Amino acid sequence: MIFRQLFEPVSSTYTYLLACPETGEAALIDPVMPAWQRDLQVVNSLGLKLVMTIDTHIHADHITSASMLRREAGSRIAVPALDALPCADVPMEDGLPLQIGGLRIDPMHTPGHTDNHFALVAGDRVFTGDALLIDGCGRTDFQSGDSQVLYETVRGKLFGLPGETLVYPAHDYQGRWVSSIAQEKQRNPRLGGDRTLEEFVELMANLNLPYPKFIDYAVPGNKACGECPPDLPDHLRQYCHEMAESPQG
């Protein structure tokens, strides 16, 4: 498998490039609007053809570049079937593999951060979206989030993967790139060790986090598979403008 981890600094989002070395077919997981040209440059520099973009869920902190990449590269858009988005080409279902050339990607329904959230398993790695972060997890206080469901998802599904499975989250805010299932099971301060359901629900209920500043624009934009709103305030325009520079993770 050809693999690259790319970082978009405005929303601290990781985008992942996966490709089949035999066919040259490639997919991007959670591509971000400001970085679409960067992503295509990476695809082209490796001599690959982008055939699919995959969004783990309807994001609240950035707008996907799925529609832009479909227009520019002809890639198909895969999103959770449960969201029933008319703009999607591939309705993603639990246990129904996505095939990228000879590369198999297995979608896993992982609700809790959002009700229709998915993780993606590819070989020895899992792309956990916002459900499981390195030493953390996604919020559960909006978009049909549910702390009890997230606890059951992470500990019952994701922690059921082999311990050596590499964990690649959709975000990290401290410069970390990768973890493992074994590490998160042991030391994740929210969900690891002997953390009980009751303790987790109480912890999540008392985070006192601010209202997401981009959610009112990101959610409708992502329900359209990546449309920047025309009325975006000046202080939020960086979420849709192309980035001048973006380091790779």
Automatic annotation (TrEMBL):
CDD domains: POD-like_MBL-fold (cd07724). The keyword Cytoplasm does not apply. The keyword Metal-binding applies. The gene is gly3. Keywords: Hydrolase, Metal-binding. It holds the Pfam family Lactamase_B. It comes from Cognatilysobacter xinjiangensis. One of its GO terms (molecular function) is hydrolase activity. Residues 12-171 form the Metallo-beta-lactamase domain. This is Zn-dependent hydrolase.
